[in-house]
């Protein structure tokens, strides 16, 4: 009798073990807390660091971080959501394969803008040749055109003012008969500097001999109490007054106003001295070269900041933050003879785009300028901003995924 009971117990245990194995093999289930050891293959979203992520409704290119032994092959498959979530921006495929050239690398997926009335979810499976399989879940919200996004200027990101930001646009005369937009600034009143500035660069803004006004002033469209006093000098410590819209991108012989506005406190951020005159300046010179192209072409630029590095103060003692990273994203027509408005271009090969992001420190002067470039989509991934929303939806993801420094004469 005891022997039968013992055999029955063992049989039951074996059956339970088999059931558990079968359950673990079936379906694409998600684990809230992955238990993979450092030597096991694994996958997670860059944005969340987990197997689940929620993203905004605009077109974007989320990154999936992969970890596996070098030489391991993998297959990434969109199991659901394949009408709007793809592994290629042009062919709209739902599967891709690759090989790990290092133990950690990333793969990219491409999302279309969600113009529906409800959020939507995609399931993505990553299978490794070592046997591991990871299921990821992405939820995309509804795209809602921000209430403040009323002007069809290609450089403007999607934006919606909140309790911490004030967004204003400045205009200045180019001649006796023409007034043009200078820049739009999204100023963070808690940090004491701008989240971003959006502006066009074109030779019409650079006429005659360059004259720097050094007319440091408060931004008249933003309450003074939120701005640092830069009229009495730079910041305390090692930080210098760094322009976001470069002074020598704005000068016309008719009036000094265009240049003077670049010295508003809202256009200035605390920057490391050597970075300001090093890699940051190198990128600004790329903008100058591409913005002076002859013809109808315009370079559309957004310059901004990401995360807080430390605290500082102006010489009057007002405390403000210091940005940890500085970025630029650029967009232009590939040919200077292309007069088609950016929003009406539907061939992605007619456009070129690139991003730049570097640590606000002297260490960012090491290496080459190309080491600090990336796609616009990658800058979006880090900052959470949606750049160049005027791009045609059918090509937006592909254009913003571009990363070809040679197109910009960047080495």
What labels would you give this structure?
single chain, 411 residues, alpha+beta, five-stranded mixed sheet, disordered N terminus
How would you characterize the overall build of this protein?
The chain is an alpha+beta fold. It is built from 6 helices and 19 strands. The strands form 5 sheets. A 7-stranded antiparallel beta sheet has the order 11-12-13-16-17-18-19, sandwiched between helices. A hairpin with a 5-residue loop joins strand 16 (299-313) and strand 17.
Residues in helix, %: 10-25%
- Would you tell me the overall average pLDDT? 88
Determine the strand fraction and express it as a percent band: 25-35%
What is the count of helical runs? 6
SSE pattern, N- to C-terminal: HEEEEEEEEEEEEEEHEHHEEEEHH
Low-pLDDT parts are: 1-12, 15-27, 29-37
Rg over CA atoms: 26 Å
Cα-to-Cα separation, first versus last residue? 82 Å
List the strand order in the largest sheet.
11-12-13-16-17-18-19
Q: What is the approximate shape?
A: globular
Main β-sheet: number of strands, strand sense, barrel status?
7 strands, antiparallel
What structural class results from the helix and strand content? Answer: alpha+beta
Number of strands: 19
Topology, please?
Elements lengths: L1 H24 L16 E4 L6 E4 L7 E5 L5 E8 L4 E2 L8 E5 L4 E5 L1 E2 L8 E9 L4 E8 L24 E9 L5 E10 L4 E9 L37 E5 L13 H4 L7 E5 H4 L2 H13 L7 E15 L5 E15 L17 E9 L13 E2 L1 H8 L9 H8 L11
Parallel strand pairs: 2-10
Antiparallel strand pairs: 1-3, 3-7, 4-6, 4-9, 5-8, 9-10, 11-12, 12-13, 13-16, 14-15, 16-17, 17-18, 18-19
